[in-house]
RNA sequence: GCUCCGGUAGUAUAGCCCGGACAAGUAUACGGGCCUUUCGAGCCCGGGACCCGGGUUCAAAUCCCGGCCGGAGCACCA
């Protein structure tokens, strides 16, 4: 709660041409893959600005390629936006408005500003490159109207005819060289089925929709920059007003590809099993790893800008924010990775009651029963020498009698915590639970090389109290790191970060 | 190849439009110290950058030109 407020106060630069109460932004996902952090950051920005100016937000699925879109992805986005606490005011799919697109297309053909082109793909490509017009461009309006009708009547097969806008074949901006605005697709669409086979292309659908939704501001990545002119031109033809564009460069997180293609390749290579792999920048991956939506939000609002330069974020930037949110609320537990047995002579069995958090007392207390036998981490054993004194945190000091890789023998020693005594975590031998911790790391080292240790599995023992931890709770295993409980049945945790 | 756009510490950014108080701010990472019954958090200190070369100017991170490097686009995808 307190944290929410803090983020809201963070300032975003003012939005150009923004009028309070009149701003309308949009979330325009293409439901052809799982939502990832790039969508999240773009969504957060569009949403934050709408909020900042008391405006409205549209969730509009850009689903005009029947071959690419799948039902499950629509839901992935809705879920993802909800997770980020993005609230949208309206929702629609572009595929619902096909008839509307037809009406506008007809209007444009009647205006003499579009034509039906029968050139083969390759020819279009090469003429466009040369800046030359083709013979179909000079067909008269009635001819074009006739062909347009024929397209709908199924008189042409996929690839045989397209509708092109009359732009400027000599334009420096190649998107203006008579772009295709409709094509024939012989493939059923997951939402509207096989009802249509003439489908609008992106620029047409998006510009008309942005017009009818009264979008005032578009915040998007820079690969769309060249399309501003085209999209404005389309709206000008049909008498709609244009939005203000704010574009910024794409980004990546170091060692972590975001593109569907690359992620799929990783899955196909057997390096990962699913799209919610904790090493992936998908929303589900981040969530499983223990990244909080508030951290993604704060990261977006405070650590990024609208630069056009190429960016490669270091994960530590996000982790640090996440840790600051987690630290005051995560319960502490003892966990001993790669455990080694410790016997403490002269220690009477007993029970101690210790806090779940060093300062946040609202998290309560836990009890641990112990005997004279424990597990401790081999990482701590490595540094031990005979006669050293160590402290089992909250419990007792122990003088090491015999430290070996396999078993450590010590004897109870008096006193409490002190300056030069290392304090380590421990687990009672007879009352411990075996747990597995998945430790995700970056997928690629120096750009291209696959990281062989991108997902290590660490086994160890945790104190019995972890049975209270439910799936999704993020705890801190002391001196190990923050971990999210992924499965209570198999006792699997995923390390979030240190 | 063509067109457009960028280049501030390891990383991400502020500053650039409207040149001067910028011997460049912040976050993160790193090093040191303090604190702490965690190697977490917190506190303090430290090193670390204006891509290069010219020009304009009393004055350039900021304006201009050239170079180098990087990114994006050049679909019947979005």
Q: What's a quick, concise take on this entry?
A:
The chain is of the alpha/beta class. 28% of the residues lie in helices and 28% in strands.
Can you describe this structure?
Strand 1 (24-27), helix 2 (37-52) and strand 2 (56-61) form a beta-alpha-beta unit. The protein is elongated, with a radius of gyration of 30 Å. Strands 12-27-28-29-23-26-13 form a seven-stranded mixed β-sheet. A seven-stranded mixed β-sheet has the order 21-18-19-20-14-17-22. A four-stranded antiparallel β-sheet has the order 4-5-6-7. Helix content is 28%, strand content 28%. Helix 2 (37-52) packs across helix 11, helix 7 packs across helix 8 (227-237) and helix 11 packs across helix 12 (315-326). The chain is an alpha/beta fold. The model is unreliable at 1-9 (pLDDT under 50). The two termini are 24 Å apart. The chain contains 13 helices and 29 strands. The protein has three domains: 2-94 and 205-323, Rossmann fold, CATH 3.40.50; 98-198, Alpha-Beta Complex (Glutamyl-tRNA Synthetase, domain 3), CATH 3.90.800; 332-497, Beta Barrel (Ribosomal Protein L25, Chain P), CATH 2.40.240. It binds one RNA strand of 78 nucleotides through helix 5, strand 5, strand 6, helix 7 and strand 11.
The residue fraction in helices comes out at 25-40%
Put simply, the count of helices is 13
- Main CATH class of the largest domain: Alpha Beta
Number of strands: 29
Q: How many structural domains in the coordinates?
A: 3
Question: Any low-confidence stretches, pLDDT <50, length ≥5?
Answer: 1-9
Query: In the CATH classification, which architecture of the largest domain applies?
Result: 3-Layer(aba) Sandwich
**What Rg do the Cα atoms give?**
30 Å
Shape: elongated
| Named CATH topology of the largest domain | Rossmann fold
| Chain-averaged pLDDT | 94
The first-to-last residue Cα distance is 24 Å
- Describe the strand arrangement of the main beta sheet, using strand numbers: 12-27-28-29-23-26-13
**So, the CATH homologous superfamily of the largest domain?**
HUPs
Please state the structural category.
Answer: alpha/beta
What percent of residues are in strands? Answer: 25-35%
């Amino acid at each position: 709660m307190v944290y929410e407020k803090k983020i809201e106060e963070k300032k975003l630069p003012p939005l150009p041409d923004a009028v309070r109460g009149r701003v309308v932004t949009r979330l325009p996902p293409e439901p052809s893959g799982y939502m990832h952090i790039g969508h999240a950051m773009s969504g957060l920005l569009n949403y934050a600005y709408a909020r900042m100016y008391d405006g409205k937000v549209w969730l509009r699925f850009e689903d005009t390629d029947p071959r690419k879109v799948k039902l499950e992805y629509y839901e992935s986005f809705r879920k993802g936006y909800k997770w980020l606490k993005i609230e949208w005011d309206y929702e629609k799919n572009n595929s619902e408005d096909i008839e509307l697109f037809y009406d506008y297309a007809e209007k444009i053909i009647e205006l003499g500003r579009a034509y039906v082109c029968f050139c083969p793909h390759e020819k279009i490509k090469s003429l466009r490159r040369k800046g030359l017009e083709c013979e179909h461009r000079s067909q008269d309006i009635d001819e074009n109207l006739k062909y347009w009708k024929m397209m709908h009547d199924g008189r042409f097969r996929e690839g045989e005819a397209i509708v092109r806008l009359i732009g400027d074949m000599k334009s420096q901006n190649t998107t203006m060289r008579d772009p295709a605005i409709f094509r024939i697709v012989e493939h059923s669409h997951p939402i509207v089925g096989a009802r249509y086979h003439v489908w609008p292309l992106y620029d047409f659908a998006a510009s008309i929709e942005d017009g009818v939704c009264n979008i005032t501001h578009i915040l998007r990545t820079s690969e769309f920059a060249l399309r501003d002119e085209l999209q404005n031109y389309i709206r000008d033809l049909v008498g709609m007003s244009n939005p203000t564009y704010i574009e910024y460069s794409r980004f990546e997180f170091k060692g972590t590809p975001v593109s569907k293609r690359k992620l799929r390749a990783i899955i196909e290579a057997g390096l990962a099993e699913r799209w919610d792999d904790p090493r992936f920048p998908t929303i589900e991956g981040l969530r499983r790893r223990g990244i909080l939506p508030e951290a993604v939000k704060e990261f977006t609002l405070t650590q990024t800008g609208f630069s056009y330069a190429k960016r490669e974020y270091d994960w530590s930037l996000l982790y640090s924010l996440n840790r600051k949110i987690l630290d005051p609320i995560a319960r502490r537990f003892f966990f001993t990775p790669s455990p080694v047995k410790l016997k403490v002579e002269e220690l009477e069995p007993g029970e101690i009651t210790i806090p779940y958090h060093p300062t946040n007392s609202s998290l309560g207390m836990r009890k641990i029963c112990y005997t004279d036998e424990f597990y401790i981490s081999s990482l701590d054993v490595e540094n031990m020498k005979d006669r050293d004194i160590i402290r089992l945190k909250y419990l007792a000091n122990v003088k090491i009698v015999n430290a070996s890789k396999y078993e450590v023998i010590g004897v109870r020693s008096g006193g409490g915590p002190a300056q030069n005594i290392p304090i380590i975590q421990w687990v009672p031998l007879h009352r411990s639970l075996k747990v597995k911790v998945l430790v995700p790391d970056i997928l690629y080292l120096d750009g291209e090389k696959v990281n062989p240790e991108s997902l290590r599995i660490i086994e160890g023992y945790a104190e019995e109290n972890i049975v209270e931890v439910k799936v999704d709770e993020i705890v801190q295993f002391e001196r190990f790191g923050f971990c999210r409980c992924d499965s209570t049945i198999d006792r699997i945790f995923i390390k979030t970060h240190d």
